[in-house]
Specification:
With 435 residues, the chain is an alpha/beta fold. 29% of the residues lie in helices and 25% in strands. The protein is built from 13 helices and 21 strands. Strands 4, 14, 15, 16, 17, 18, 19, 20 and 21 form a 9-stranded mixed beta sheet that branches. Helix 4 (83-91) links the parallel strand 6 (77-80) and strand 7. The protein is globular, with a radius of gyration of 23 Å. It starts with a strand and ends in a 12-residue tail after the last helix. Bound molecules: ligand LLP. Ligand LLP is lined by residues 58, 61, 79, 102, 162, 164, 199, 202-203, 236-239, 288-292, 327, 331, 387.
């Protein structure tokens, strides 16, 4: 569920008319609903009743400082993957003692930064990494809390580019090898084992792979609980969201109208399936969802540049490009596209919705049926709150877009559109080309 809806045929985020936001701040602009994030957070936090649950929001999904502050205030810790993300969480007032540091290639500097700020644990992905963490902790004179990321070899049944828990993926330690590593841990003086972690992939739409992965990992978690008294089991993130019917799925009737077997994965279904497997482990459970918390809480506002009629085909050229929202180009991601002003008297248009970038992959939708739109009219790409701005680039020397946060009838720009001066601030002409 989310808080985007039409009121008097104008698309609103909570009580804010999105056309007004576009007029004020220009386009392309990301807009996020704080209330949707809060609702999603509460649903996730209560999906495993009776268990001690911590949420470590995956910052990579949306690392805007205001979004991080909001999640911190809701009670979230964070799942971090770089020194930059650590610094963002600190800048937003977040708490590293409730956060974990993941990734296959943490540098010594990043490990030091995490330890100096009292991170809850570093998630270890290999033996050489464990040795590096032990070394850095030794130089700091403080033990490093760690958790072993295992690779349970489970097919997440999602896009190949976002599958992470299968043999052959670079992530995690195969279970058989993990047994050896935890024995070796005894010899390392500067690390303490705190937990076990796994993450099998992103945008999972069925609960089965989560159940299989937890069932595979559970005996190992139980063994480490006995042998080392580990405190937590992080089952990663990965819960998928509804991209196809993004706008309709914000309403309860949409869910109710679907036969139970066809309903999308929800925290409630996820929790109910996993609770019986997790309960006997008697450890704290960490959830590292990113997309579920923020995807349907965000839209990308854009303006039509032209309606170009080609050879038997129409192209709706908009002012957002693959540099602003990469998911369609990179993962064939589908985002619903809706006009900010709905006009049911207009004809339908079937068009490819494309950006201005000089690449054929700069295409948001092929042969999409839309209300006819013309130059200057506004539209929204729905469910763009996760992996939208955070994957944006300056390709074609386009400035990074603006971001706006809405709560009720209040809204504020939380990232200003980049200027040309900011875009080129770190560049210079070398002396040997001067003059
Ligand atoms: N934990 C770990 C260790 C991860 O690697 C990830 C995501 C998450 C948690 C959060 O997963 P989520 O709940 O958001 O699915 N850019 C891609 C998604 C990449 C996900 C990478 N890892 C996309 O736009 O679909």
């Amino acid at each position: 569920m989310h808080h985007f809806h039409y009121t008097n045929q104008n698309l609103h985020c909570e009580s804010v008319d999105l056309a007004a936001v576009a007029r004020l701040y220009g386009t392309p602009t990301y807009v996020y609903s704080a209330t949707t994030i809060a609702d999603n957070y509460r649903r996730l936090a209560t999906c495993l009743p009776g268990l001690d649950v911590g949420i470590c929001y995956a910052v990579k999904a949306n690392s805007n400082l205001a979004v991080l502050r909001h999640l911190h205030q809701l009670g979230a810790g964070f799942d971090l993957v770089s020194g930059g993300e650590i610094r963002r969480v600190l800048a937003a007032g977040g708490d590293l003692s409730r956060s974990v540091f993941a990734g296959v290639g943490k540098s010594e500097d990043e490990i030091r930064l995490a330890l100096e700020h009292g991170v809850m644990a570093l998630h270890v992905e290999s033996e050489p990494e464990l040795a590096r963490i032990n070394h850095v902790a030794g130089t700091l004179g403080r033990p490093a809390p760690v958790a072993l990321r295992i690779n349970p070899d489970v097919d997440a049944k999602t896009h190949a580019k976002i599958t992470t828990g299968k043999r052959g993926n670079k992530f995690g330690i195969p279970l058989a090898q993990a047994e050896r590593i935890h024995e070796a841990l005894g010899k390392l003086r500067h690390v303490t084992l705190r937990g076990v972690q796994m993450h099998i992939g992103s945008q999972l739409t069925e609960v089965g792979p989560f159940v299989d992965a937890v069932a595979k990992a559970a005996p190992f978690v139980a063994e480490l609980r006995r042998a080392h008294g580990i405190e937590y089991f992080s089952i990663g993130g990965g819960m998928g969201v509804v991209y196809d019917d993004a706008l309709a799925s914000g309403r309860a009737e949409w869910w109710d109208a679907k036969p139970v077997a066809q309903r999308p994965l929800t925290p409630e279904v996820y929790g109910e399936a996993l609770l019986p497997l997790l309960q006997p482990l008697d450890v704290r459970i960490l959830l590292e969802h990113g997309r579920f918390l923020v995807a349907n809480a965000g839209v990308l506002l854009s303006r039509v540049e032209h309606l170009k009629r080609g050879d038997g085909k129409a192209f709706l050229v908009i002012d957002a490009g693959m540099n602003d929202l990469l998911r369609p180009a990179l993962y064939d991601g589908r985002h619903e596209i809706v006009p900010l002003q709905r006009d049911t008297s207009r004809r339908a248009l079937v068009a490819d919705v494309v950006g201005p970038i000089c690449e054929s992959s700069d295409c948001f939708a092929r042969d999409r049926q839309l209300q006819e739109l013309g130059e200057g009219e506004l539209l929204a790409l729905m469910s763009a709150g996760a992996y939208g701005f955070s994957m944006a680039s300056r390709y074609n020397s386009r400035p990074l877009p603006a971001e706006v946060l809405v709560q009720g009838s209040a809204f504020e720009m939380v990232t200003a559109r980049e200027t040309f001066a900011q875009m080129t601030a770190n560049e210079k002409i070398p002396a040997f080309l001067e003059g």
